[in-house]
Amino acid sequence: PAVTGQAGRRAVGVEYTDAAGVQRTASVSGGGGGGEVLLCAGAVSSPHLLLLSGIGSPDELAAHGIGAEVCLPGVGRNLIDQPAVVTGYTVTSPLSITDEMFWRRSGALSPRRVGEWLLRGSGPLASSGCDFGGFFSSRPGLAQPD
């Protein structure tokens, strides 16, 4: 895949190969004004496609045999991966934040919990539901978790 452009350095489409091996081009209608190209391939693949299309640091592109179409050195920089491990536990007694938030299992928010959140900004309604995290070192001797 590659982002396609025209004079003036405006992206007007994307060239790609479909599942059947046929080369195709998706383009902004007529390549004129009013349309736009949105590249939404994720945090890793979007900059990768831009770099393969010649959009990035000219020196780094040249090192890989790619001609620079647009000098944009920030492409592909400052990516911070945040891997996550999801764990689950089975509990033997009822234990749920939802038991604390709702009034007598009616589905209505507990007036006590609403008041707690409105007055103090605390309680179960102040939780995003994802309050735990951990940081670990992959090997001994590191100054901080990596």
Annotation, overall tally of beta strands: 5
| Low-pLDDT sequence parts | none
Q: Biggest sheet: strands, sense, closure?
A: 3 strands, antiparallel
First and last CA, distance = 33 Å
Overall geometry: elongated
Mean pLDDT: 80
Helix content: 10-25%
What Rg is obtained from the alpha carbons, in whole angstroms? Answer: 25 Å
As laid out across the biggest beta sheet, the strand order is 1-2-3
Structural class: alpha+beta
Query: What order do the SSEs take from the amino end to the carboxyl end, as H and E?
Result: EEEHEHEHH
Task: Classify the beta-strand content into a percent band.
Answer: 15-25%
The total count of helices amounts to: 4
Q: What labels would you give this structure?
A:
two-stranded parallel sheet; about 20% helix; single chain; about 150 residues; 3-stranded antiparallel beta sheet; elongated; 4 helices; alpha+beta
Task: Walk me through what this model shows.
By secondary structure, this protein is an alpha+beta fold. Helix content is 22%, strand content 15%. It has 4 helices and 5 strands. It has helices at 42-52, 58-63, 97-101, 111-120; strands at residues 2-6, 10-17, 23-27, 55-56, 70-71. The strands form 2 sheets. Strands 1-2-3 form a 3-stranded antiparallel sheet. A two-stranded parallel ribbon has the order 4-5. It is elongated. The two termini are 33 Å apart. The model has no long low-confidence stretch (mean pLDDT 80).
